[in-house]
TrEMBL record:
Actin homologue MreB-like C-terminal domain residues: 219-336
CDD domains: ASKHA_NBD_ParM_Alp7A-like (cd24023)
Protein name as annotated: Peptide ABC transporter substrate-binding protein
Top-level lineage group: Bacteria
Residues covered by the Actin-like protein N-terminal domain: 6-180
SUPFAM superfamilies: Actin-like ATPase domain
InterPro entries found in the cross-reference section: ALP_N, ATPase_NBD, MreB-like_C
Pfam families: ALP_N, MreB-like_C
Gene source species: Cytobacillus spartinae
Organism ancestry: Bacteria, Bacillati, Bacillota, Bacilli, Bacillales
Length: 384
C-alpha cells in the first residue's frame, strides 16, 4: 500500500509532511557535486535524525533534464560554502526542476528513516503538490502531476563511502492551488476528523467552531507569491481568489544586496543563509541582521496589510481569516499589530507552525476519500 505525503515546494524551501512522520523542511537550494576538497574516507555515516541537513544524492529520473546527476541539497550547500543555485524570483514552479529535486530528496530521506540499516529500499507513495493560483491551470497542473508520477531512483552518499539506493514509485499525484490546499488541514486532520478552534464573539462568549460549513478567507504568504483564497468549507472559489506575484523573497533579496554592499566580509550568499541567520538567535550575525532588516519587515507588512484589509472589507460578512506560510513568520508581529490597530482582527487566526500549513493540507488531502476516488478513476482509465 502506498504511503501518503504532501509536498509544498516553495521558493524558499520544501515543506514535506509524510504520514506518521514529523514535517520536514529542506531549503530549495542545490549545487552540483564537484568533488570532495578533503579526504572523507574515515568519516562516519550521517545519523538518521541528521539526514536532511547533509543531503548528498544522485537522482535518476525522467522528471529532470539531466538524469543521473549528483547534487548537494539544502543546508549542506551553505555549510560547505558551495555556490548556491536557487529558484528565480518569478519562477514557474510547474517547470522549475528544483521542487522535484528537493521533493525526491525528502521522500528518499523519509524512507531511509524507516529503514536505517538498509542499503537498498523500495517505497511507493501517493503524493499531493501545489502551484500558485496565478500560474495554475488544468494543463500545467496535469503536467506537474505527470512529472512526479512513475519511478525515480535516489542514491544517498554517506561520507563513509556507504551508498543507500532508494527506489521511489509515485503511484498517483494530484496538484492543487496553493492556499486552497491548506484549507484541508484547517478543516480536517489526517484521519478525517473535523478540527475545532476556540473563538470569542463580540459579547465575550467563547465557543468551538469547525470550518466545514463556513466562509473561509486564507492568506498564504510565501517567498515568491502570496495567495488570497476564498473557500466555502473546502470548496475553492476561484473567481473570488487571486494570487499576488510577490511574497517575502524580493524584499529579502533587496536587503541582502544592501547588506552585502555595506558588509562585504560578512556577506549573505543565499536566501537559505539569510533564513538561517534570521531565525537562529545564536547565529553570530543574527542581532545585526535583525536590526537592519526591521525597516524592510515593516514596509512589507504595511504592503501586505492593505491587501488583507481590502479583501476582508470586500467579503462584508466577517469571514474566518487564516494567515500562514513561510513569509508569515517574517512579518507576523508587524502584521498582527497593524490589523489589530485597524480593527480587522475579528475571526482572525495566525495559524501555528505557519510554514507547514500547506504541507499539512496536502497530506490531509492525500489521505482523503476524494483523493482515493480520483486515483481509482485514473487507474481505471489507464487500465481500461
Amino acid at each position: 500500500m502506498a504511503k501518503k505525503a504532501g509536498a509544498d515546494g516553495g521558493n524558499n524551501a520544501l515543506k514535506l509532511w509524510a504520514q506518521g512522520h514529523k514535517p520536514m523542511m529542506i531549503p530549495s537550494v542545490y549545487s552540483e557535486y564537484l568533488g570532495d576538497s578533503v579526504d572523507t574516507l574515515d568519516a562516519n555515516d550521517i545519523p538518521v535524525d541528521k539526514l536532511e541537513d547533509h543531503i548528498d544524492i544522485t537522482i535518476t529520473s525522467k522528471a529532470l533534464t539531466f538524469s543521473g546527476v549528483r547534487y548537494i541539497v539544502g543546508n549542506k550547500v551553505s555549510e560547505d560554502r558551495l555556490e548556491p543555485l536557487e529558484m528565480e524570483k518569478k519562477s514557474d514552479k510547474s517547470k522549475d526542476e528544483i521542487p522535484v529535486i528537493v521533493t525526491l530528496a525528502g521522500l528518499a530521506i523519509t524512507a531511509m528513516k524507516e529503514n536505517p540499516e538498509s542499503d537498498r529500499i523500495s517505497v511507493s507513495y501517493d503524493l499531493s503538490v501545489a502551484l500558485p493560483i496565478a500560474f495554475i491551470n488544468k494543463e500545467n497542473a496535469t503536467k506537474n502531476e505527470q512529472r512526479y508520477m512513475g519511478t525515480h531512483t535516489v542514491t544517498f552518499h554517506h561520507p563513509s563511502g556507504r551508498n543507500v539506493e532508494v527506489e521511489i514509485k509515485i503511484e498517483f499525484c494530484k496538484c492543487l492551488p496553493e492556499g486552497a490546499a491548506a484549507v484541508w488541514g484547517v478543516v480536517f486532520d489526517e484521519d478525517g476528523n473535523q478540527i475545532e478552534r476556540l473563538i470569542e464573539d463580540e459579547d465575550g462568549v467563547r465557543k468551538n467552531v469547525s470550518f466545514l460549513d463556513t466562509t473561509n478567507l486564507s492568506f498564504d504568504i510565501g517567498a515568491g507569491t502570496t495567495e488570497i483564497v476564498v473557500t466555502e468549507g473546502l470548496n475553492f472559489k476561484p473567481t473570488l481568489s487571486k494570487g499576488l506575484n510577490y511574497g517575502t523573497k524580493e524584499t529579502i533579496l533587496k536587503f541582502i544586496e544592501t547588506w552585502n554592499k555595506e558588509f562585504p566580509r560578512k556577506g549573505i550568499d543565499s536566501l537559505a543563509e539569510f533564513n538561517e541567520i534570521l531565525f537562529d538567535s545564536e547565529h553570530p550575525r543574527h542581532a545585526d541582521v535583525s536590526v537592519k532588516f526591521k525597516a524592510h519587515q515593516r514596509q512589507l507588512a504595511v504592503k501586505l496589510s492593505k491587501e488583507i484589509m481590502n479583501k476582508i472589507d470586500d467579503m462584508k460578512d466577517d469571514p474566518y481569516v487564516f494567515i500562514y506560510g513561510g513569509g508569515a513568520t517574517v512579518v507576523k508581529d508587524e502584521l498582527q499589530q497593524i490589523l489589530k490597530q485597524r480593527g480587522r482582527d475579528k475571526n482572525l487566526f495566525f495559524l501555528k507552525d505557519p510554514m507547514y500549513v500547506n504541507a499539512k493540507g496536502l497530506l490531509v488531502y492525500t489521505c482523503s476519500p476524494r483523493f482515493e476516488e480520483l486515483k481509482a478513476m485514473a487507474q481505471g482509465v489507464h487500465n481500461g
